[in-house]
């Protein structure tokens, strides 16, 4: 197999890698905020249950969670494995990353001075208005470096989809490497991931600069 043919085959898998990446962000970022608010709830039961769930998701391997979401229904209830494995893969990724984003959000929210809440109350803002218009924009600015780090990690973690035989880029590269008895596909995959990460890092850096007006 020529190098160009190899790149073309792996580029098909790269579109699936991108699908995992973008769908995970679309679902995990807002879900993480919901989980963070539940974690900060004044109801001890809600707060402690959410804390336990976050601990489980952060304390167990993402690979294990992928296997559980994909094959768990089969082993537990006898349900057939979904033919479209993108669905369980995205569910597992979104839930896992929501737990990490939740703790990042919580840290940002709790770092805000109490005086800002008090000043907003004096000005007649409701709690929801205070959070949306005053607190949240500043929180987003503060947590952007941490969010960027997780997003960059997500690019590399997409390769874990090979554990459930989802045909993303790394899985295709691994198959080509086995059939051709060559390490070249792994080098090509590494270049793909490096370029993707460089683009993500550049975009996130631009977003951080655009938010400098919150200083």
Write the layout of secondary structure elements.
Elements (H helix, E strand, L loop, with lengths): L2 H37 L4 H16 L2 H16 L8 H25 L3 H9 L4 H31 L11 H12 L3 H27 L5
Helix pairs in contact: 1-4, 1-7, 1-8, 2-4, 3-4, 4-6, 5-6, 6-8, 7-8
Describe this protein's structure.
With 215 residues, this protein is an all-alpha fold. It folds into 2 domains: 3-110 and 169-214, MetI-like (MetI-like fold, Orthogonal Bundle), CATH 1.10.3720; 112-143, no CATH class. Helix content is 80%, strand content 0%. It has 8 helices and no strands. It has helices at residues 3-39, 44-59, 62-77, 86-110, 114-122, 127-157, 169-180, 184-210. The longest helix has 37 residues, at 3-39. The mean pLDDT is 89.
Fold-level CATH name of the largest domain: MetI-like fold
SS class: mainly alpha
Return the CATH architecture of the largest domain: Orthogonal Bundle
What's the helix count? Answer: 8
Given as residue ranges, the uncertain stretches (5+ residues, pLDDT < 50) are none
Give average pLDDT, whole number: 89
Number of domains: 2
Helix and strand pattern: HHHHHHHH
* Radius of gyration based on Cα positions: 21 Å
Helix content: over 70%
The CATH class of the largest domain is Mainly Alpha
Q: What characteristic shape results from the CA principal axes?
A: flat
User: Beta fraction of the residues?
Assistant: under 5%
Count of beta strands = 0
CATH homologous superfamily grouping of the largest domain: MetI-like
Largest sheet: none
In whole angstroms, the N-to-C terminal distance is: 54 Å
